[in-house]
């Protein structure tokens, strides 16, 4: 048996472990000798040791008395010699370690601890391999049943690693949390709040992925592309290849060529649509799980005020703060004067900044805070000396802010803005008319009398029941709803179900009548035949 290949020995051993115990122990002794010589010179590559690592990690589970010794030797070698080890040997020991963990021969908490100690190694391939392994291992561990206790221990450890002095280690901890949340393995409130804590870390490499996660901009993080996304891309490439291969058979006519180009264009368009949908998807599920969004937004804003990173990163933080304010209707009064200084037509990413201004507007912001913001937009964008594009953008921005906060504009300013309905540019005219239509619905009294239009039945009903004094809602005034919003769906569903049952009953009665008529006709025919 000495010269039996290790692959064959592994097969025979898995079938009958007791008969091949001596062969296993011989290979284990050979491994121990080679490992000791390797420890003295870790920069060398020993092919035989690499083969033994593969063999022993596959079959050691059959001999529980040797598992602890072998696992300890793997972990000790990795922790003591990983930094100066030959790259191929390092990956061989790492694969053996991962194989042992997959067979549950190493505890999960210990495996995570060892993995993060190896994250300090200056080898990108090792970090990437360990990251994907930890995510897959935790997903496998929770596949049949949630391991609550183990998950809590690992999450506590990852929370500690986020605050580590090494930005590389902290970033890896954040990326693992993001992957687990994205794959719906850990999608609870504790994980979401741990990710939120990482947004407040001072290291750029750590907080940028977390902020992008809350904004739904996961496409910007190459490491977080899930296997399902890559598989869908491969499927689309395969479709295009199949179309091209099919075109190679048969006559090369112009009609077939046009059909091929059209089919490829449709496949690419579908791919772009999926990418755009993924990029624009905001993770409101995680934002809704935050325990204290007000405190989180205040801390983020203080971080933004002190932030000296490049402009694109500051925009990300600004975007997240505005979404938090709009989603939870937070009161962060210093945010609006802060963003006002950027609202100029020549400012970089001005459309995004105007969007953030609208996102942060809601009906609980005091008028004396929101009115200066609208005034700045009007003074900088909606003037005769501004270009048509700037005027249209300014009017649309004012309309979006006013839709969320009806008292954001004064009557005098609104009268000036709607004068652009007769401007020479059609985009400006459309923007001004949309502002008029908005105020016809939410507060017609701010408009000049000739612009109010005729009130619809719904508007009359609202003014009669909700605002008896014919005055639109003011700041701090709330209207108690008469019914639960959306409750009408239950009534409609009940009516639909009743109609369906009535239809079925009528169909059944028709069938019974038809069968009775057929029976009568049959009896008459039989009697006639007998008579004849």
From TrEMBL:
Primary location group: nucleus
Keywords on record: Nucleus, Protein transport, Ribosome biogenesis, Transport
Any GO BP: ribosomal large subunit biogenesis
Domain of life of the organism encoding this protein: Eukaryota
Pfam families tied to this protein: SDA1_HEAT
Gene3D superfamilies to which the protein is assigned, alphabetical: Leucine-rich Repeat Variant
Compartment annotation: Nucleus, Nucleolus
Keyword Protein transport assigned: yes
Domain SDA1 N-terminal: from-to ranges: 55-424
A GO CC term assigned to this protein in UniProt: nucleolus
InterPro entries: ARM-like, ARM-type_fold, Sda1, SDA1_N
Function recorded in the entry: Required for 60S pre-ribosomal subunits export to the cytoplasm.
Protein name: Protein SDA1
UniProt source species: Trichobilharzia regenti
